[in-house]
């Protein structure tokens, strides 16, 4: 496997774990509130989880590229 495929595999594993953690946290928070959220608060939490997930994935990708540049 090449460096790019190794990086993508690591990113896939990290992203999957993070997504499971964030969605589990969000669902537990919604369950703990136990009130009629009318969908708005739940939708806001889903958007927040997605934004955090995307930012972390992008930052991991940038960091792995920076490490590769430092090695050269």
UniProtKB/TrEMBL annotation:
User: Could you name the domain of life of the organism this protein comes from?
Assistant: Archaea
User: What keywords does the record list, in alphabetical order?
Assistant: Membrane, Transmembrane, Transmembrane helix
Q: Which residues cross the membrane?
A: 44-62
**What's the protein called, per UniProt?**
Uncharacterized protein
Q: What is the lineage of its organism?
A: Archaea, Methanobacteriati, Methanobacteriota, Stenosarchaea group, Halobacteria
């Amino acid at each position: 496997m090449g460096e790019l495929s190794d990086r993508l595999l690591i990113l896939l594993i990290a992203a999957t774990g993070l997504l499971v953690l964030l969605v589990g946290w969000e669902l537990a928070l919604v369950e703990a509130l136990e009130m009629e959220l009318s969908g708005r608060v739940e939708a806001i939490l889903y958007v927040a989880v997605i934004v955090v997930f995307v930012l972390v994935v992008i930052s991991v990708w940038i960091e792995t590229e920076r490490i590769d540049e430092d090695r050269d």
